[in-house]
Amino acid sequence: MTILSVRQKRDSLDALLARASKLPPGDPLQADLARYLCVRVAGFLEKATESIYFEYARARAQPEVARFVGARLEDSPLPKSENLCLLAGSFDKRWEDNLRVFLDPEVKGAINSIIGQSQ
Fold first, then answer.
1. Please, are residues 50 and 69 in contact by the beta-carbon 8 Å criterion?
2. CA 2 to chain centre
3. pLDDT digits (tens, 9 = 90+) for 77-115
4. DSSP conformation class of 24
5. Residues 35 and 43: beta-carbon distance below 8 Å
6. In angstroms, how far apart are the furthest CA atoms of the chain?
7. Who contacts 54 (Cβ-Cβ below 8 Å, separation ≥6)?
8. pLDDT tens track for 13-53
9. Which of 95, 100, 112, 114 could make an S-S bridge to 88, C-beta 3.0–4.6 Å?
10. In which region does residue 26 sit, left (phi positive, over 0), alpha (psi from -120 to 50) or beta (all else)?
């Protein structure tokens, strides 16, 4: 997934969320759509994280190092908030610190809930 396709996938998810929000309350499709959205968002987080860090490595490292980073990213655990912070820290401790500040408890909880629902 390229950075451009990350944006396209995000836009696609945004459109799907917008359509889902128009369902009337109590519509039986809400539960099914919510589960589907959790799976889609979890997959997006996983692939977007891999793509962004791989592109970073590809732009700054030798091809062999970038391939190694890409392979390791494919094997990384699900993108729960703590795993995202640890991954950022494996590139740069400041990134981890900044991400921990950015991911307030509400956002962390939302990420972890989405990942949990998608399993």
1. no
2. 14
3. 888 999 999 999 999 999 999 999 999 999 999 999 999
4. P
5. no
6. 54
7. 66, 69, 70, 73
8. 999 999 888 988 888 888 889 899 999 999 999 999 999 99
9. 95
10. left
User: 84, 78, 81: which is closest to 104 by C-alpha?
Assistant: 81
What distance in Å separates the CA atoms of residue 103 and residue 25, rounded to the nearest whole number? 30
List the one residue out of 6, 14, 92 whose CA is nearest residue 46: 6
Task: Give me the torsion for CA of 71, 5, 95, 92, rounded to 10°.
Answer: 30
SS percent in the chain: helix, strand, coil, step 5? 80, 0, 20
C-alpha Rg value of the chain to the nearest Å: 16
Using a 10 angstrom Cβ sphere, with 0-12 exposed, 13-18 middle and 19 or more buried, the burial of residue 13 is: middle
Helix (H, G, I), strand (E, B) or coil at 51: helix
